Amino acid sequence: MQSHFAFMETGVPHKQRFNIAPTQTAPVIMLREGKRECLFMRWGLVPSWARDEKFGPRMINARAETIREKPGFKDSFKMKRCLVPADGFIEWKNTEGVKQPHYITLKNDGLFAFAGIWSEWKKAGGLLWTFSIITTDCNSLVQPIHPRMPVILSSDNYDTWLDTSSGPNTLQSLLAPFPSDRMQRIEISRKINSAKNDRAECLLPEESNGFQSLLFPE
Predict the structure, then answer these.
(1) How many domains would you assign to the chain?
(2) Cα(204)–Cα(73) distance, rounded to whole angstroms?
(3) Are 4 and 111 in contact (CB under 8 A)?
(4) Engineering a disulfide at 140: which of 28, 171, 180, 213 sits with its beta carbon 3.0 to 4.6 angstroms away?
């Protein structure tokens, strides 16, 4: 992950994760003093002006269409943007009351970054660092499962997204659905439905014994 995202080594160890849920902590790449740095933040943005932490669970995602106007997101969109490393994400298709999880990855199973925003909130004893993932309309691959999908950035756009001098129109143009012909999806085990399950077997196709992949990998 470090070589792909070219961030400074922080010395903070992290383990491979297979099932990260909202309000849990994940690695996030941000720009500080002109250099990329990997920090661990809680998923669910708490604006700096919030009275308490209750905002977080309600702000795990920010809609691309309204991010420039929403009070909770607009300040972070201007100056506090980040990359959220991953190699896949989960969406659920509800069929007759049964939720079937689908694991969606790039066809080359490579690393990528969700477009994210971050914030820091003062609390007793220090700062709470939090982030949100930006969502947009789905592409044709995701459409049968869910009407929206997270924004996936091309590696060519990492610098533009992190650069605090990038203009709002340029940034908005990046918040588009990722091309469906570069992605794939598989049905996976329903074990992923529980945040307590954070094992490789959660990402196994139900008919397979050999597939393995990582979510927010090392």
Answers:
(1) 1
(2) 35
(3) yes
(4) 180
- 3-state SS record for the chain: CHHHHCCECCCCCCCCECCCCCCCEEEEEEEECCEEEEEEEEECCCCCCCCCHHHHHHCCEEECCCCCCCCCCHHHHHHCEEEEEECCEEEEEEECCEEEEEEEEECCCCCEEEEEEEEEEEECCEEEEEEEEEEEECCCCCCCCCCEEECEECHHHHHHHHCCCCCHHHHHHCCCCCCHHHEEEEECCHHHHCCCCCCHHHHCCCCCCCCCCCECCC
pLDDT, tens digit, 9 for 90 and up, residues 35-73: 999 999 999 999 999 988 887 788 999 999 999 999 999
Strands 126-137 and 112-123: antiparallel
CB 168 within 8 A of CB 161: no
State which residues form the domain around 106. 2-203
Digit-coded pLDDT (tens) for 130-173: 999 999 999 999 999 999 999 999 999 999 999 999 999 999 99
Residue 131: inside a domain:
yes
Q: Is residue 212 part of a domain?
A: no
* Cα 123-62-88 angle, rounded to 5 deg: 100
Phi, psi of 192 (to 5 degrees): -65, -15
